[in-house]
């Protein structure tokens, strides 16, 4: 064929030149390698926060590999699941290690992903032209939550069972389709063997496939537009005589060696948790989950695993009484939109939406709204690229308003997370309600405060 | 003579007596256990198969795993297997679970991982077990005649009462911040075959064993962890040096 002669032979790989040439003439090996590593120019000023992307990839691979080995011994059967996990912990050689890697990895995945998302919030990595990177990333986050939720049922402990029961029953609360939807998800009238089997299918094949594909899309979109950086400088705007960004350095070898160092430090922290405190005080492995699932004994206190608790707090914060406060807040939000100088069509759409929401406040009961607000709390991240109207990307050049808002948001997220792990108390509910207001205010008021903020101009080049 | 001995015994009994504030959560006693003490673990295993395994299973644990405690398979077979099963079998209860349910109203739970499942923010599961097994008292209102301060209205009778004796729950006044509060105090009414210190030691050994049984890989986990960390620290150093070398020319 003509094409095999057109491509130049590979050089610089020593004894491998021949093999690589053979492959490269049949597959775009060298061009892929160049595009995504050796000639992917990344800004030279990545800081601490830029480790978490590669760490998330590392944990994904770790979870897939350990998951494969767990699947070899685990039994997705309500009568055998709990025992098979203990079998892995005792009788399978190194089974305990693989199991702890997987259970520690699940929590570490969320820690890494939350820090990765926080990086995006700080440096405006979701802003134009990176909206799609952010959206793919958010879908990854949603899939990760689904993956964690399905996986948590598999050990078939009390918390597995009752956690799944509570979450599936949330769908039950939805109007019209709710009960049928919940039944369809469970495959039974309660969480049962049928539920365990289908959750297993989702956990080991369906969601991981989607996750891997989305990670690929996330990276392809990133490599198309280029990475953001702590200064918010678009390095592609200043090209050198070789056509490469002056402020960029090739991802390989610079960031491959740097990320390798990051992975090693991460491994140390991972090992400390996994080997010396695998339960992590009942947060990574909940104590109740060492009791086999018992449909006849409801635990006195059911809490999701820590990474879901901020949203769980929001769910529990929505009470009949709090709906009145929310209605007043939505009303004033409508007034705010009316008084602002947005385009007329936007105004009309927003006002109609708010009128519908206010009408529905009376039509649906608080339980349903709890579920809706919990969902909105996750989904609202998708809108960030359009909510942020600041002329600059990075927090370094934004003013005190945005910085305070972001700082407050982090505190609120953590406080909501804490109260989500605790049994309901009057004080806890009150704090969660204030937290819920502040949580949504961070997003909903962003179009205003990000404009009012006093910003400094971003530099054109990296110093 | 008899009188002085009795008062001496009463004084002894009062020393380990537990204080409980009525109506609130019981403060758990710290279990004096040492996972490296093989004698204690072996004694605990012996007590476990003698007293617990009649009704409770340890259905995820195999007898021959007890080689971890420094026993040979033959020793395990001779001293610890009472149900006539093979040494590679799981530690199943002698009692039929259906009969057990008839007798107690609820089947006795499997005990393999109880030392983990009873952990809480109040303390590790070992503390719970240590306090629970010393917290039975006579209560004629219960079907079994027994109640427990840690687990009120528990279905389980006091399996070790012959050793500990019979405790009763007495109300006592205690000085709190500015007022006297009523607390429950456990007092030995009828002594058992063991002195309280001996009984506490036996329970500690039993709890030590149950903690081992809840995670037999624990010792290996810690050892492997230390070696892994050593390797990782070296790798951190190497990868840092590599990063430094590559980044020399980036300004």
Topology:
The complex is a heterodimer of chains A (463) and B (251).
Chain A: H1 2-6, H2 17-24, H3 29-38, E1 41-43, H4 52-71, H5 81-90, H6 95-123, H7 131-153, H8 158-172, H9 178-186, H10 193-225, E2 248-250, H11 251-276, H12 309-317, H13 320-339, H14 344-363, H15 366-379, H16 384-387, H17 400-421, H18 426-444, H19 446-452
Antiparallel strand pairs in A: 1-2
Helix pairs in contact in A: 4-6, 5-6, 6-7, 6-11, 7-8, 7-10, 8-9, 12-15, 12-17, 12-18, 13-14, 17-18
Chain B: H1 2-14, E1 19-21, H2 38-52, E2 58-62, H3 73-79, E3 90-91, H4 97-104, H5 114-117, H6 125-133, E4 136-138, E5 146-148, H7 161-164, E6 165-175, E7 180-191, H8 196-214, H9 218-246
Antiparallel strand pairs in B: 1-7, 2-3, 4-5, 6-7
Helix pairs in contact in B: 2-8, 6-8
- Coarse structural class of chain A: mainly alpha
Major sheet: arrangement of strands of chain B:
1-7-6
Main sheet characteristics of chain A: 2 strands, antiparallel
Number of separate structural domains of chain B: 2
Could you report the average pLDDT of chain B, rounded to the nearest whole number? Answer: 88
For the record, the CATH class of the largest domain in chain B is Mainly Alpha
Give the beta-strand count of chain A: 2
Q: What is the radius of gyration of chain A computed over CA atoms, rounded to a whole number of angstroms?
A: 25 Å
Keywords:
heterodimer, A: 463 residues, mainly alpha, Cytochrome Bc1 Complex, Chain C, 19 helices, 2 strands, 1% strand, globular, B: alpha+beta, Cytochrome Bc1 Complex, Chain D, domain 2, 2 domains, two-stranded antiparallel ribbon, 7 strands, disordered N terminus
What does this protein look like?
Chain A has about 475 residues and is mainly alpha-helical. Chain A folds into two domains: about 270 residues, Cytochrome Bc1 Complex, Chain C (Up-down Bundle); about 160 residues, Cytochrome Bc1 Complex, Chain C. Chain A is about 65% helix and about 0% strand. Chain A has a two-stranded antiparallel ribbon with strand order 1-2. Chain A is globular. The model of chain A has no long low-confidence stretch (mean pLDDT about 95). The N terminus of chain B is likely disordered. The radius of gyration of chain B is 24 Å and the shape is globular. In chain B, strands 1-7-6 form a three-stranded antiparallel beta sheet. Chain B has a two-stranded antiparallel ribbon with strand order 2-3. In chain B, strands 4-5 form a two-stranded antiparallel ribbon. Helices cover about 45% and strands about 15% of the residues of chain B. Chain B has nine helices and seven strands. Chain B has two domains: about 210 residues, Cytochrome c-like domain (Cytochrome Bc1 Complex, Chain D, domain 2, Orthogonal Bundle), CATH 1.10.760.10; about 35 residues. Chain B is an alpha+beta fold and about 250 residues long. Classes of the chains: A mainly alpha (about 475), B alpha+beta (about 250). At the A-B interface, helix 5, helix 6 and helix 11 of A face strand 2, helix 5 and helix 9 of B.
């Amino acid at each position: 064929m003509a094409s095999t002669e057109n491509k130049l032979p590979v050089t610089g790989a020593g004894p491998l030149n021949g093999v690589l040439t053979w492959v490269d003439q049949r597959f775009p090996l060298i061009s892929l390698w160049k595009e995504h590593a050796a000639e992917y120019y990344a800004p030279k000023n990545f800081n601490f926060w830029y480790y978490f992307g590669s760490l998330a990839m590392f944990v994904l691979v770790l979870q897939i590999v350990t998951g494969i080995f767990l699947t070899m011994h685990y039994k997705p059967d309500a009568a055998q699941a709990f025992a098979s996990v203990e079998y892995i912990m005792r009788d399978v050689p190194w089974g305990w290690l693989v199991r702890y890697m997987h259970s520690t990895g699940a929590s570490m995945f969320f820690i890494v992903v939350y820090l990765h998302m926080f990086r995006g919030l700080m440096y405006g990595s979701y802003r134009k032209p990176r909206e799609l990177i952010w959206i793919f990333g958010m879908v990854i986050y949603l899939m990760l939550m689904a993956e964690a939720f399905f996986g948590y049922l598999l050990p078939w402990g009390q918390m597995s069972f009752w956690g799944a029961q509570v979450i599936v029953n949330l769908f039950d609360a939805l109007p019209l389709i709710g009960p049928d939807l919940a039944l369809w998800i469970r495959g039974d009238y309660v969480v049962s063997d049928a539920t365990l089997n289908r959750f297993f299918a989702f956990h080991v094949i369906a969601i991981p496939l989607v996750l891997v594909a989305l990670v690929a899309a996330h990276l392809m979109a990133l490599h198309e537009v280029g990475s953001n950086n702590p200064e918010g400088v678009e390095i592609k705007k200043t090209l050198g005589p070789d056509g490469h960004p002056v402020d960029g350095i090739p991802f390989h070898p610079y960031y491959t060696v740097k990320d390798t160092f990051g992975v090693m430090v991460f491994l140390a922290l991972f090992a400390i948790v996994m080997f010396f405190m695998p339960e992590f005080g009942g947060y990574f492995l909940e104590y109740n989950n060492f009791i086999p699932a018992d449909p006849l004994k409801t635990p006195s206190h059911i809490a999701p695993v820590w990474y879901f608790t901020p949203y769980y707090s929001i769910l529990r914060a929505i009470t009949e009484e709090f709906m009145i406060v929310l209605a007043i807040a939505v009303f004033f939000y409508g007034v705010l939109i009316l008084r602002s100088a947005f385009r007329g069509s936007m105004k009309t759409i927003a006002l109609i939406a708010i009128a519908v929401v206010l009408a529905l406040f009376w039509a649906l009961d608080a339980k349903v709204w709890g579920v809706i607000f919990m969902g909105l709390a996750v989904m609202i991240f998708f809108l960030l690229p359009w909510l942020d109207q600041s002329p600059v990307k990075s927090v370094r050049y934004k003013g005190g308003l945005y910085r305070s808002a972001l700082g407050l948001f982090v505190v609120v997220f953590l406080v909501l997370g804490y109260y989500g792990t605790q049994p309901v108390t009057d004080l806890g509910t009150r704090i969660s309600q204030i937290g819920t207001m502040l949580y949504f205010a961070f997003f909903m008021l962003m179009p205003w405060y990000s404009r009012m903020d006093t910003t400094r101009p971003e530099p054109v080049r990296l110093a | 003579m008899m009188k002085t001995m009795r008062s001496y015994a009463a004084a002894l009994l009062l020393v380990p007596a537990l204080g409980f504030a009525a109506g609130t959560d019981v403060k758990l006693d710290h279990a004096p256990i040492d996972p490296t003490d093989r004698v204690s673990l072996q004694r605990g295993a012996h007590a476990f198969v003698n007293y617990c395994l009649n009704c409770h299973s340890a259905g995820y644990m195999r007898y021959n795993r007890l080689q971890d405690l420094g026993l040979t398979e033959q020793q395990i077979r001779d001293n610890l297997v009472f149900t006539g099963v093979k040494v590679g079998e799981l530690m199943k209860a002698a009692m039929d679970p259906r009969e057990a349910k008839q007798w107690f109203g609820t089947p006795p739970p499997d005990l393999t991982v109880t030392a983990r499942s009873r952990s809480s923010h109040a303390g590790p599961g070992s503390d719970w077990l240590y306090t629970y097994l010393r917290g039975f008292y006579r209560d004629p209102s219960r079907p079994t005649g027994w109640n427990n301060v840690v687990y009120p209205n528990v279905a389980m009778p006091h399996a070790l009462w012959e050793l500990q004796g019979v405790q009763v729950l007495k109300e006592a006044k205690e000085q709190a911040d500015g007022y006297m509060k009523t607390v429950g105090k456990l007092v030995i009414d009828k002594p058992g075959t063991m002195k309280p210190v001996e009984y506490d030691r036996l329970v500690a050994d039993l709890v030590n064993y149950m903690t081992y049984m809840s995670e037999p890989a624990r010792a290996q986990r810690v050892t492997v962890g230390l070696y892994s960390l050593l390797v990782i620290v070296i790798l951190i150093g190497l990868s840092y040096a590599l990063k430094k070398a590559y980044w020399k020319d980036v300004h």
